[in-house]
Amino acid sequence: MTRPVPAIVILGNGSLAIARKIQQRYPDALIHGLAERVEDVDRSYHEFGATLRQLYQQDTPIIALCAAGIVIRTLAPLLLEKGAEPPVLAVAEDGSAVVPLLGGLGGVNVMAREIATALEVSAAITTSGELRFGTCLLNPPSGYALGDLELGKRFVSDLLAGHSVRIDGVAPWLDQAQLPEDPQAQRSIHVGSGEREASANELQIYPRSVAVAVSAGVADLPDTIRTTLRQAKVAVQALACLVAADTEMACPALREAALELGVPLRFVTAASDVGALARSAVPDATISATTHDIAIAVANQPLDVAQIGRPRGRLAVIGLGPGAAELMVPAVKAELARATDVLGYETYVRMAGPFRPDQVLHCTDNREEMQRARHAFELAAQGRSVIVVSSGDPGVFAMAAAVLEALHESSDPMWHSVDLEILPGVSASLATAAQAGAPLGHDFCVLSLSDNLKPWAIIEKRLDLAAQADLALAFYNPISRSRPWQLGRALEIVAQHRTPETPVVLGRDIGRPGQTLRVTTLGALTPDQVDMRTMVLIGSSTTCVFPRVEGGDWVYTPRWYGTKPAS
Ligand code: SAH
Prior knowledge:
This protein has about 575 residues and is of the alpha/beta class. The chain has 17 helices and 28 strands. The strands form 6 sheets. Strands 3-2-1-4-5-6 form a 6-stranded mixed sheet, sandwiched between helices. Helix 2 packs across helix 3 (about 70-80), helix 12 crosses helix 13 (about 400-410) and helix 16 packs parallel to helix 17 (about 485-495).
């Protein structure tokens, strides 16, 4: 199990050097810097409070290079809501102090020591048990689970009060601890996967050493698994993962059961029975309690789940929005963080970054859409978490349809088992419209003027009918070097149905550096004002323009049509 990657948050250039030093200790961590004050960071943010709260709510460990008080005040409103919390640390801007603030059970003290070592200072540890014993007994390393937190707290205060302790079972991480050990002690730290009665004299720690192989057909899977474990006297806390046959990969009941039990779900090649599944998943485990539907595999140390079979692959087709980070939906941000592989046209892949060193980028030429879609499925079918990147919305003249077409054409059950999701984005027409006002405020028609994938005759026909129907028009792919004359022809067709005064909005590189927005008219519009990075919005007969106080114009198409309703 890997620890979550921390976020290093800074407010100014003064702390960048210290931030980089900390980043050397956590190479996957990204440095988040305040946009107006710091350049050359991995992520820019505009609002410190909102950023910190979002990271906290996403369970991201936070290393904030600022005063502890700022962090406390920022996160205070969230503290009561939450059970488990990520580690949160304040580090002095000059690197002279490391203060663990929250997340004692999430390993904040371990991180504080790691950072302090990197900065050659000592960490401000205030947890008594930790100070006395050199480790937090209530926070066993990954691969182990604490039995009961409340009993555990009492147990630790007993030890602090002078009781001695013996270790019962294998606890390699306690070798370095300074515990008041005594083989005759009444109190014990018990490490084992067997189910035990809760006792105040025992700190129970379960190695996550158990895999349960299941067949998807079982009714009420989570309860059946719990009952079977109980009957086998195996603690449910020792459960490391569920295992199923790869032929059942897309089964929702399996996914829900794993979610409810809070463990990962892994798949192995289908076998004659669940016992065989369990054996192939964990070859050196003891297989017990094999029923027709469930088999329990108990290993003698924590399982490395990443080595067991493979996960269900995921393929997310995402839209970045027009470019600006604020216009990217949070679901897309989360998906970018979880991806193992990123596919797309190089410009968009770069726009979606930065990525961690462990994330594989597959940049391709813009034209190879179907090939890219098939490549994405091949990777996802191996159990990887794949992203296909589009700008704007992936369903608008972009990759989502190509991905679905590739799936539709395939008879490979592994492709159909992939966890496929399309995540929307702000499309260029909507981003441009919003900056101009509301030119698409009434019925409108979206067209691509590219005749690469459709005959020009159909474009002319649709333009003619849409213009005749008095719809506002949004043109994607309006012009390119290989399609120089098409826009001029399109404007001629529109002009047959609209007056020269019809408002036109030209948005170029909207949401990207150097963006421009122009409001003009149909009569004044010429193709040389437009390039392939431009969105062309043409108003309907009701579209209006009026000046803004700060300069430029507002453009809108009213909600009503025909006669204005009385207000
Ligand atoms: N899926 C994208 C559109 C891809 S087609 C989306 O939903 O936005 C590419 C065309 O979209 C370009 O030729 C241009 O007309 C338009 N476009 C894309 N991004 C743009 C931006 N940031 N500003 C203006 N137009 C843009």
